[in-house]
Amino acid sequence: MKEPVNVKNIGLRGVTVADTKVSFIEGNKGVLVYRGYRIEDLAQNGTFPEIAYLLLYETLPNNNQLADFNKQLQEASILPAYIFGAFKNYPAGASPMDVLQTGIPLLAMIDPELNNDTKEANLRKAVRLIARLPMLVAAWHRIRQGLEPLPADHSLSHTANFLWQLNGEKPSKKMTDILDTCLVLHADHTFNASTFSCRQVVSTRAHMYAGVTAGIAALSGSLHGGANAKVMKMFLSLEEEKDVAGWVREQLEKGEKIMGMGHAVYKTMDPRAIFLKEMALNLGKETGQEKLIKLSLEIEQTALAEFEKRGKTEIKPNVDFYSASVYHLLGIPLDLMTPIFAISRIAGWTAHIIEEKTGEAQVKPALYRPKAEYVGQYCGLMGCKFDPLEKRK
Ligand SMILES: CC(C)(COP(=O)(O)OP(=O)(O)OC[C@H]1O[C@@H](n2cnc3c(N)ncnc32)[C@H](O)[C@@H]1OP(=O)(O)O)[C@@H](O)C(=O)NCCC(=O)NCCS
Questions:
Q1: Rounded alpha-carbon distances, angstroms, from residue 380 to 373, 376, 377, 385, 391
Q2: Is 81 within the bounds of a domain?
Q3: Which domain holds residue 265?
């Protein structure tokens, strides 16, 4: 960089650090596209494997290409026994996100192409990761309950197989379709914190698995993917609350955030939240759990009215506000909500990692290396005097 640019303490908001062909957001208009296609179109008409293919190969698959991609996913749907052995030694209370994070280097150890950095090899690794992340989540969920992990059922779709391996029951078409749409909606989101982490790590020429491990770590935080579980915790804690509106006002007065609301890029409704809200409302009715829906609507409406009073009309529900209810109504345990985000976002992470590694979207990809302004102890360029241990007070 020729001229120093000072953008500190703004979390890099509005700073363009790379070019990408993977996805695009127009935050003021609530528009999200993957490889040129609107998210609404993809969620209504696509399946998760089709969208993963689109993210990786830059084009929608035809019938044969999709069949071949699904076959590759199925062939990769196997975990080495040492992973189960490791998981069986973990404490049963371990967080599924921590377990998932540790699972990625364990997968790296058996990847025959780990250090082959060609685009073709990285595409094959991406397929293996997309196939295996859901298996890690399902295997841990069973092991922590004292159950044996289940082998993949190749007669099922990618999403149905995840639910089967998780619950040990064949899921209904409806349940599979709803979860599949959730996976489509979460699959990519430009330079969000976890994707940036993946890209930053592989800009050092670290392998794809190292980048994905960093992505999972970043996703776990409650300001990012961890928000869905926080939203559900908030709903559960308010089940018996008589004055929900009062609680929301009190939180805001204390300067607390309402989880699942607000977004770094969207300054209007998150297009994914529009879908998820409708899905949650329908599911709530169908499952007779309208109490939860009533509660979420009350929180949303009170918060929106309060934000309006404070001139913060850009704060709206984001993807996590209603995805939490959808997952809950599908019977998914609270601590698996963020891992489910990960089994979708792996498609976007790997597409971005490949883009970072090939430099296809950029003139010249560079190692990310920002700088920080030093505000610590300073004794001039000669440095502070180092007193030997015995002379220090
Ligand atoms: C996601 C998030 C970090 C993006 O926020 P951002 O654009 O970086 O903006 P900030 O966090 O700096 O917030 C800007 C202002 O809006 C307020 N705000 C933002 N989100 C809020 C929320 N969910 N509840 C209450 N206030 C909120 C902040 O308190 C801040 O107020 P201030 O200017 O008076 O200090 C933020 O909205 C948030 O923390 N949301 C809750 C967590 C969440 O749902 N994360 C998932 C994101 S998909």
A1: 15, 12, 9, 11, 22
A2: yes
A3: 227-329
Residue ranges of E strands in the chain = 23-26, 31-34, 37-38
pLDDT digit string, tens, across residues 202-229:
999 999 999 999 999 999 999 999 999 9
Closest C-alpha residue for ligand 1 atom 1: 263
pLDDT (tens digit per residue) in 78-97 = 999 999 999 999 999 999 99
Collect all residues with Cβ–Cβ distance below 8 Å to 121 and sequence separation of at least 6: 113
Residue 236 counted as domain residue: yes
Question: Which of 191, 223, 252, 308 is the pocket-test mutation for ligand 1 (most atoms within 8 Å of CB)?
Answer: 223
CA distance 241 to 239: 6
Amino acid at 16: T
Q: Is residue 176, in this structure, part of any structural domain at all?
A: yes
Residue 350 sits in a domain whose CATH number is: 1.10.580.10
Atom 3, ligand 1: which residue's CA is nearest?
A: 223
Q: Same structural domain for residues 242 and 318?
A: yes
Q: Distance between CA atoms of 143 and 32, rounded to whole angstroms?
A: 37
CA distance 52 to 184: 8
Could you tell me the strand order of the sheet in which 37-38 lies? 23-26, 31-34, 37-38
If one counts the domains in the chain, the total is 2
